[in-house]
């Protein structure tokens, strides 16, 4: 009687069929989990941008034209872009400086450990507090009959508005923006401050460097890409703000979002296609800012590894 000779299978061949189905199923499951994200981006980012670009190159009859982009060179629209850029730069600069100083105090300043969670939690809330509630809060606090204004006038004899302050002016709006810019800066610069290694400071001290020299020659050069990237992110954040400035000043403060709103929803300045061109200009400016932010963040992460 002959016994059938069995050929042993290779361990690789025996495991391969069992691993591949599970791997493929896991891979399919991972991609399935990304479907909501890609669907959200398609519906609320890609398709709106395609719609804006298409409408920006059309006139009221739907014919192709460059007139909408040519109209961006008119004085009132140039003034709107200039005002938005200046306001965004000032609020981003103030938010960057104040946020870095606040971050240094909270993270590296030697304060009690319970202080940081409180500030980080508050920053997470305050960075999203904007629009009509924020405008009302500042009017009730620093308006002409606001709480702080009345207390300064009646208790300390100081007329805030008589001294030249005006909440509804350029600097008043910039101060209002600072309420959500500073906590946002704290949130996004905190990881960079945490990334400063204690060994760097100890090595600088061993080599005889003073505290000022350490920050000037070691810490600030390492933090600079992160700080500059955060500044660009704050600029983009302020540039796209509409509800806060509109609720605070109405249509008197002609930043680009308000001019765009007037062109699309207004009864007098109604030219949706020009509004689409304004929106495309905003998208380009914000895309450049965010791209530079990503580049600088990548550079900062490489330095801090």
UniProtKB/TrEMBL annotation:
<feature type="transmembrane region" description="Helical">
    <location>
        <begin position="118"/>
        <end position="140"/>
    </location>
</feature>
<keyword id="KW-0813">Transport</keyword>
<keyword id="KW-1003">Cell membrane</keyword>
<protein>
    <submittedName>
        <fullName>ABC transporter</fullName>
    </submittedName>
</protein>
<keyword id="KW-0812">Transmembrane</keyword>
<comment type="similarity">
    <text>Belongs to the binding-protein-dependent transport system permease family. CysTW subfamily.</text>
</comment>
<dbReference type="GO" id="GO:0055085">
    <property type="term" value="P:transmembrane transport"/>
</dbReference>
<feature type="transmembrane region" description="Helical">
    <location>
        <begin position="65"/>
        <end position="83"/>
    </location>
</feature>
<feature type="transmembrane region" description="Helical">
    <location>
        <begin position="274"/>
        <end position="296"/>
    </location>
</feature>
<dbReference type="Pfam" id="PF00528">
    <property type="entry name" value="BPD_transp_1"/>
</dbReference>
<dbReference type="InterPro" id="IPR035906">
    <property type="entry name" value="MetI-like_sf"/>
</dbReference>
<keyword id="KW-1133">Transmembrane helix</keyword>
<feature type="transmembrane region" description="Helical">
    <location>
        <begin position="218"/>
        <end position="239"/>
    </location>
</feature>
<feature type="transmembrane region" description="Helical">
    <location>
        <begin position="31"/>
        <end position="53"/>
    </location>
</feature>
<dbReference type="GO" id="GO:0005886">
    <property type="term" value="C:plasma membrane"/>
</dbReference>
<feature type="domain" description="ABC transmembrane type-1">
    <location>
        <begin position="81"/>
        <end position="295"/>
    </location>
</feature>
<dbReference type="InterPro" id="IPR000515">
    <property type="entry name" value="MetI-like"/>
</dbReference>
<feature type="transmembrane region" description="Helical">
    <location>
        <begin position="160"/>
        <end position="180"/>
    </location>
</feature>
<keyword id="KW-0472">Membrane</keyword>
<feature type="transmembrane region" description="Helical">
    <location>
        <begin position="89"/>
        <end position="111"/>
    </location>
</feature>
